[in-house]
Design goal:
Elements lengths: L11 H19 L11 E6 L5 H12 L3 E5 L1 H4 L8 H11 L2 E5 L3 H10 L4 E3 L7 H15 L6 E5 L4 H13 L2 E5 L8 H10 L4 E4 L2 H5 L4 E4 L11 H7 L7 H4 L7 E4 L11 H4 L6 H20 L1
Parallel strand pairs: 1-2, 1-3, 3-4, 5-6, 5-8, 6-7, 8-9
Helix pairs in contact: 1-13, 2-13, 4-5, 6-7, 6-13, 7-8
The chain binds phosphoric acid mono(formamide)ester and norvaline.
Length: 303
């Protein structure tokens, strides 16, 4: 495993090992101990889009493992693939650092980096996928549900990058997922088929959020307007109106259902403040687990 670009590139065993390592390192760090396995190593972090969780959690994870993180904005380097070809950036960076993580618009940018870099490349979100988020989500589900296999997720909202990575994780790790989206915003059929090839019928689609949550262990939502879609904001908000995670929707779900959101949350749109702040919500445990999963990922790829 050189890179971490897509959950579907990994074997189920590798994902399980990463989850195990995440839990072990989480325990170790909570006890005040440290594993300085990345001492003297550097990670370049390229960001074409804003970030709170990904940027800070990767930076802290590197520092806590004894390494160093370098934050790079596109304007610092003349854009990704603009001032110079991505393949040249990849080979130059490989001479300086021990790992590259990138948050880009096009998924091609991270695959091109990975093809030409001789050091590991990590996908920190592209328009197509968000694998680090999905693995932190699975870690959170394991902690709150006591298991992964057979857990039922109702994903309410846009069939976007976050939904896609979660669907792939369900396929690899035998979880069930129903994606409830308005017509035209579904998760694409090819991604659903890819998930279902690894675990038959694990991901399905509906346009009815109430049906989706009926026997869910987890209700998951994300923004209706992803980074880069700001021009479609009005249209999207109108289309997703009936797909809000609110108290009314929760009446159709089991009382102890857990609420997840990758954050940032837009209260009053995809989720109400009431539900986000309710006892059912585990979204801050979920945010914390970005750090714990990525610590394990960095250790696995960079040692
Ligand atoms: N969930 C997530 O990736 O958050 P950021 O965009 O703040 O990194
Ligand atoms: N789907 C969102 C996720 C943000 C973490 C986006 O791409 O903006």
């Amino acid at each position: 495993m050189k890179d971490f670009l897509c959950i579907n590139d990994c074997a189920a065993e590798q994902l399980k090992e990463l989850l195990q390592e995440s839990s072990e390192l989480k325990k170790l760090y909570k006890s005040g101990e440290r594993d300085l396995c990345l001492s003297g190593k550097s990670l370049a972090m390229l960001f074409e889009k804003p970030s709170l969780r990904t940027r800070i959690s990767f930076h802290v994870a590197m520092a806590e493992l004894g390494g160093n993180a370098i934050y790079v904005k596109p304007e610092d380097i003349g854009g990704i693939g603009k001032r110079e070809p991505i393949k040249d950036m990849a080979r130059v960076l490989s001479r300086y650092v021990d790992g590259i993580m990138a948050r880009t618009f096009e998924h091609y940018s991270v695959t091109e980096l990975a093809e030409f870099a001789t050091v590991p490349v990590i996908n920190a979100l592209t328009d197509w996928s968000h694998p680090c988020q999905a693995m932190a989500d699975v870690l959170t589900i394991q902690e709150h549900c006591g298991k992964i296999e057979g857990v039922k997720i109702a994903y309410i909202g846009d069939g976007n990058n976050v939904a896609r990575s979660l669907a792939f994780a369900c396929g690899k790790l035998d979880m069930k997922m129903v994606v409830a989206s308005p017509t035209g915003y579904d998760l694409d059929a090819e991604s659903i088929q890819a998930a279902n090839r690894t675990s038959a019928n694990c991901v399905s689609q509906t346009n009815d959020p109430r049906e989706a949550v009926a026997n869910a262990d987890i209700i998951y939502t994300d923004t209706w307007v992803s980074m880069g879609q700001e021009d479609e904001k009005q249209e999207r908000r109108a289309s997703f109106e009936d797909f809000q995670v609110n108290a009314e929707l929760l009446k159709s779900a089991p009382a102890n259902v857990k609420i997840m959101h990758c954050l940032p949350a837009h209260r009053g749109y995809e989720i109400t403040d009431e539900v986000a702040e309710s006892d059912n919500s585990i979204m801050f445990d979920q945010a914390e687990n970005r750090l714990h999963f990525q610590r394990a990922l960095l250790k696995k790829l960079m040692t």
